Automatic annotation (TrEMBL), chain A:
This is Branched-chain amino acid ABC transporter permease. The keyword Manganese does not apply. The chain crosses the membrane at residues 20-39, 46-64, 70-87, 99-117, 144-163, 192-215, 221-241, 253-280. GO terms for biological process: amino acid transport. It comes from Thalassobaculum fulvum. Keywords: Amino-acid transport, Cell membrane, Membrane, Transmembrane, Transmembrane helix, Transport. It comes from the Bacteria. It is found in: Cell membrane. The keyword Cell membrane applies. It is a multi-pass membrane protein. GO terms for molecular function: transmembrane transporter activity. Its main location: membrane. InterPro entries: ABC_transp_permease, BCAA_transport_permease.
UniProtKB/TrEMBL annotation, chain B:
It comes from the Bacteria. It comes from Thalassobaculum fulvum. One of its GO terms (molecular function) is branched-chain amino acid transmembrane transporter activity. Pfam families: BPD_transp_2. It is a multi-pass membrane protein. This is Branched-chain amino acid ABC transporter permease.
UniProtKB/TrEMBL annotation, chain C:
Pfam families: ABC_tran. It comes from the Bacteria. PROSITE patterns: ABC_TRANSPORTER_2 (PS50893). Residues 2-243 form the ABC transporter domain. The keyword DNA repair does not apply. Keywords: ATP-binding, Nucleotide-binding, Transport. InterPro entries: AAA+_ATPase, ABC_AA/LPS_Transport, ABC_transporter-like_ATP-bd, P-loop_NTPase. This is ABC transporter ATP-binding protein. The lineage of its organism: Bacteria, Pseudomonadati, Pseudomonadota, Alphaproteobacteria, Rhodospirillales. One of its GO terms (molecular function) is ATP binding. Gene3D superfamilies: P-loop containing nucleotide triphosphate hydrolases. It comes from Thalassobaculum fulvum. One of its GO terms (cellular component) is plasma membrane.
Length: 290, 330, 252
């Protein structure tokens, strides 16, 4: 079976799809860390929130696109509340306190999901536009999954442009490189932090809404995705956009191909990979600063 | 620096007495809770040893605990060894795995250290979850408790087992306190306070940190062996990173770097979970909110606050103000 | 005792240490002089191993230590104090000194005995505290003692490890004239066989205590000789006065 070309194409597409999902999550997490020096363990919960809000929105409006539009906005709004109430004052509290507070948030979100949506796994319909399957290169592949890959690439391109071509992007790059310097230049760093944090939350919410039709929506989906996302961020290098891309692809492919080729070793392989990177390159593959 | 102050000694004696009295007055369910508290107290002590005194905040102590449990289960069920040998295996297994993690991660700091321990812990979790030898995601049933009938103790009786675990928790405290008062412990606190300077004074810091982490893992492994015997069953869930997170909550709630606080935190968390569960099954939310409030208030934790108030009370006495400069905690 | 041969170190295009060679005899008091950015602290960092040189050798008692780690060199008897206080925050003066003494006396890893109550350690702590004038403050937290006392503890930490070679980086910075006199007395009280290197900014102080003076400028040794000669050297005067001029002393 492994000799079959279509097998490799299908698995490559699966890996790409997972990579794009991981990218949507890790890019927010990594840029937030690079700028604010804040590790948000509740980032996975924001993703789950996006999925739950998406399920409700699409059920209410009777259209997938309602989820697509509402989830990022709703999660960004929750992000605003979090930022004002917690994140802002935790920025200089040290990594242990940040880990603890956001771990507490995971618990709070977990029960909020159970209160709001119950314990039963929920599903969400694909949009009509991308339902069904597409035939190409001799394989048949679900159209919606191709849409996920495409969406990831679009977001990637948009973020690259945002970072390289806009003033906000320049400030973010300067801030990641040297936070004090950016502050000295008279830039309103606080406002930039806020915008970036909201953008990161919105992307997490988008990822949740996009993943909902593919995965079942459960209360623990946030904690389940959190660890691979953190692995991506640490392997790529905290604060690095290029690192998030490389890390997402690496983990997406290792996890997907590992699961079909060597199911025994696949799960361990991801962490072993992380351990090796931490030993050889403690700052990740693409460190944000020189 | 760690000092076994009269306040600490009093608190430990009080907790031990309370545990014994509780053991003889409560029913089956209470004994189950007491056993759980005693076992988790050992892991929390182990965690406070490295996090509170060594500055090594770990998110893999759940995994070390789980490795100890699996080591005991494999030794007794798969290899047919006796309970004593199984316990030794658990201590050795937890210690060796922790030493390895410490040795590899000792050069990383802050969030990178936390992430490294998280990764190693999850690696162990993933291994046991997928391993057919150890029962995969179903875990391993049929674990027998240590046979101490020669000494006239029946550990299959829940009161006997609860008291056994309580005694071991007390011994774990004594061990940790002795270690922290020793040259080894003093130096560990020195590393937390200023690692580069400790190195400049001639200490091979890396070796010291790895040894401390290994010792902590050995204690966690012991607790794992007790947990395996308690439920007579092990599952990969023991190793999951959220268990490590809960252990960290215990230490923070009780008071990081106070040692007694770790025990107190284990007790409070287990009982709060249980009490809250009687009214609502949303204990996660309660614990999460309490944790957030504790950290946000810049809290010293329960025992940290007690020591702080006790120290202030002492400072108000008409004695030289020098006592102010030598706080008992840390 | 301590010998340096052709030591060089650059950060990118910036050469901070250029072919520095030194030979310090046992028991010698050597003062390193030079304007800001001359590479004095960098040289110390290279000597104790906190920086790795690009080329050159460092020898202690004829033994090449260039590849040894910071802690291994310290165990050979090389100790330093820092230009910026580098203490164990949150601990008392006694605990600070005891950490250092215990390390040197092999008590830092004792599993049962309390190193801070060990007789040998306590004796060293009290002796060093006496020398640096901290006997009254032994139980005070380093966070609460005055700046001058912290500055003295900085030197005390190095001294408590009973080194054979003591490197002091601007031990008198910021402690005022009274402190400088006390430092003189302290220095004269140290064992004669202790080899001492001091980075100093103040020329008068340096000439008062040195057996020999080495002057660095832009990472190079520009003078090496007895203090009298240094005092009369036009070159040194020019370097020092020049450093006030528009050219500046380069990096810190």
């Amino acid at each position: 079976m492994t000799a079959d070309a279509s097998f490799w194409i299908v698995q490559t597409l699966n890996a790409l799809q997972l990579s794009m999902l991981l990218f949507l999550l890790s890019v927010g997490l990594t840029v937030i860390f690079g700028l604010l020096h804040f590790v948000n363990l509740a980032h996975g919960s924001l993703y789950a929130l996006g999925a739950f809000v998406g399920v409700s929105a699409s059920a209410f409006a009777g259209s997938y696109w309602a989820a697509f539009a509402v989830a990022p906005v709703a999660v960004a709004l929750v992000g605003i509340v979090l930022y004002v109430a917690l994140i802002r004052r935790m920025r200089n509290a040290g990594p242990m306190n940040q880990v603890l507070v956001t771990f507490g948030l995971i618990f709070v979100f977990l029960d909020l999901f159970r209160l709001g949506w119950g314990d039963i796994p929920l599903g969400m319909a694909e949009p009509d536009l991308f339902s069904g399957r597409t035939e190409f290169l001799g394989i048949v592949y679900p159209t919606y999954r191709l849409f996920i890959i495409g969406l990831g690439l679009v977001v990637l391109a948009a973020l690259s442009l945002l970072l390289s071509r806009t003033q906000l992007g320049a400030i973010v790059r300067a801030g990641v490189d040297n936070g004090d310097m950016a502050a000295c230049l008279g830039i309103n760093v606080e406002r930039v932090f806020f915008v970036v944090f909201c953008l990161g939350c919105a992307l997490a919410g988008l990822a949740g809404a996009v993943a909902a039709p593919v995965l079942s929506v459960t209360t623990d989906m946030g904690t389940a995705i959190l660890i691979p996302t953190l692995v991506v961020v640490v392997i790529g290098g905290l604060g690095s956009l290029r690192g998030a891309i490389a890390g997402s692809l690496l983990i997406g492919f290792v996890q997907t191909f590992g699961a079909v080729l060597a199911p025994q070793a696949a799960a361990v392989a991801v962490y072993a990979l992380l351990a090796v990177v931490l030993i050889l390159r403690p700052a990740g593959l693409f460190p944000a600063r020189g | 620096m760690f000092h076994q102050t009269p306040l600490k000694t009093g608190a430990v004696l009080l907790l031990a007495t309370a545990a014994v009295v509780y053991a003889f007055t409560t029913g089956f369910f209470g004994l189950e809770l007491l056993t759980e508290v005693a076992i988790l107290a050992i892991v929390a002590i182990a965690l406070d040893l490295v996090a509170g005194y060594g500055g090594m905040v770990s998110l893999c102590h759940g995994a070390l605990y789980g490795v100890g449990a699996y080591a005991f289960a494999s030794a007794t069920v798969l290899l047919g060894w006796g309970g004593g040998a199984g316990m030794a295996m658990a201590v050795a297994g937890g210690g060796a795995f922790a030493w390895l993690i410490g040795a590899v991660s000792a050069r990383t700091h802050g969030i990178f250290f936390i992430m490294a321990t998280l990764a190693f812990g999850q690696m162990a979790y993933a291994y046991f979850f997928d391993s057919p030898l150890f029962g995969g995601s179903d875990g391993m049933p049929g674990i027998a408790r240590l046979d101490l009938s020669g000494a006239g103790l029946d550990l299959n009786d829940s009161r006997g087992y609860a008291l056994f675990c309580t005694v071991l928790a007390l011994l774990a405290y004594a061990l940790a306190a002795t270690l922290l008062r020793s040259g080894f412990g003093r130096t560990l606190v020195g590393i937390r306070a200023n690692e580069p300077r400790m190195r400049a004074l001639g200490l091979p810091v890396w070796r010291h940190k790895a040894a401390a982490f290994g010792t902590s893992g050995a204690l966690a492994g012991l607790a794992g062996a007790l947990a395996a015997q308690h439920t007579m069953y092990v599952s990969p869930g023991l190793l999951h990173w959220t268990v490590s997170g809960e252990l960290l909550i215990m230490v923070i709630l009780g008071g990081l770097g106070t040692l007694v606080g770790a025990v107190l935190g284990a007790g409070v968390l287990v009982f709060v979970k249980h009490e809250v569960a009687r009214f609502t099954d949303h204990w996660h939310m309660v614990v999460g909110l309490v944790l957030i409030a504790t950290v946000l208030s810049g809290g010293r934790g329960i025992f940290g606050q007690i020591e702080f108030l006790w120290g202030r009370r002492g400072a108000r006495r008409p004695e030289p103000a020098a006592t102010e400069g030598s706080p008992d905690h840390a | 005792m301590l010998e340096v041969r052709d030591l060089s170190k650059s950060f990118g295009a910036l050469a901070v240490t250029q072919r520095v060679s030194l030979r310090v005899a046992p028991g010698e008091r050597r003062v390193l002089l030079g304007p800001n950015g001359a590479g004095k602290t960098t040289l110390f960092n290279l000597l104790v191993g906190e920086l790795a040189p690009d080329s050159g050798l460092i020898l202690v008692d004829g033994r090449d230590v260039t590849a040894l780690s910071v802690d291994a060199r310290a165990r050979l008897g090389l100790a330093r104090s820092y230009q910026k206080n580098n203490l164990f925050a949150g601990l008392t003066v006694h605990e600070n000194l005891a950490l250092s003494a215990a390390c040197a006396q092999g008590k830092a890893t004792a599993l049962l005995a309390d190193s801070h109550r060990d007789r040998g350690v306590v004796a060293t702590v009290e002796e060093v505290a006496e020398r640096v004038g901290l006997s009254e403050l032994l139980d005070a937290s380093v966070d609460t003692i005055p700046y001058g006392a912290r500055r003295r503890l900085e030197v005390g930490l190095a001294l408590a490890s009973k080194p054979r070679i003591l490197l002091m980086d601007e031990p008198t910075s910021g402690i005022g004239p009274g402190g400088i006199n006390a430092f003189h007395a302290f220095l004269h009280g140290l064992p004669a066989e202790l080899t001492i290197l001091i980075v100093e900014h103040d020329m008068d102080l340096a000439f008062g205590i040195a057996d020999r003076v080495t002057v660095l400028n832009h990472g190079e040794v520009v003078f090496d000789g007895p203090p009298q000669e240094a005092r009369d050297s036009a070159l040194i005067r020019e370097i020092y006065l020049g450093s006030w001029g528009a050219e500046g002393g380069g990096h810190a």
